[in-house]
Amino acid sequence: MDRKVEFFFDVGSPYTYLAWHALPAVADAAGARIVWRPVLLGAVIKAAKNQSPVEVPAKMRWVEDDLARCAQALGVAFRLNPHFPVNTLTAMRVATGMLARRPAEFPAYLTAAFNAMWVGGRNLADPAEFSSVLEAAGFDAGELLALAADQEIKDLLRGATEVAVTSGVFGAPTFFVGEKMFWGHDRLEQVARALTAS
Q1: Does this model's pTM top 0.85?
Q2: CA–CA gap between residue 157 and residue 174 (Å, rounded)
Q3: Position 59 confidence tier, pLDDT thresholds 50, 70, 90
């Protein structure tokens, strides 16, 4: 039986960072594989007529406290990025390109990108800063930025984002087990039960 969980993600989402830490253990326990689905969260939010928490001041104040509590509960390092929200278009194009063409290096790229965003407080929208993050992680920044500029990769990310929207995704992280959709890192217990039942 091929058990799998689809993981729609954007490195610009702090709750997705928490899910990225927690999901592998959930999948391993269920004998399931993770199907990585990079998307552009800003486009998903716009298409779904959703709102980022930064647009609701009272919610954002709560989110700051909630993220700190959730990170502490998971035992992971976390710092709210001072540049949040960050335009992750290039970073997510690189993620798409790595997954499509350099899958063996994809996990190392995700580690570098997530940690830069949610531990290091780096601005991945700034080309020089993003290049510095990539080089520090052992990548050739020029190669990866060229990958992000490849029209096929741009089209892949755009298509994946459109699939997410038509599937009912309105934010990140979002998980699918079969046709069942789960939103939020705090729904991973439900994801685990769905995987066990699949």
Answers
A1: yes
A2: 16
A3: confident
- Are 118 and 76 a contacting pair, CB within 8 Å? no
Chain segment 72-130, per-residue pLDDT in tens: 999 999 999 999 999 999 999 999 999 999 999 999 999 999 999 999 999 999 999 99
Return the CATH number at 28. 3.40.30.10
CA atoms within 13 A on the CB side of 22: 24
Phi-psi region of 138 (alpha: psi -120 to 50; beta: other; left: phi over 0): left
Sole residue written with tokens 């709210």: 80
Q: Which structural domain, as residue segments, surrounds residue 157?
A: 4-197
CA 124 to each of CA 14, 117, 143, 173: distance values in angstroms, whole numbers, following the listed order? 14, 7, 16, 19
Q: How many domains does the chain have?
A: 1
The tally of CA atoms less than 13 A away on the side-chain side of residue 179 is 0
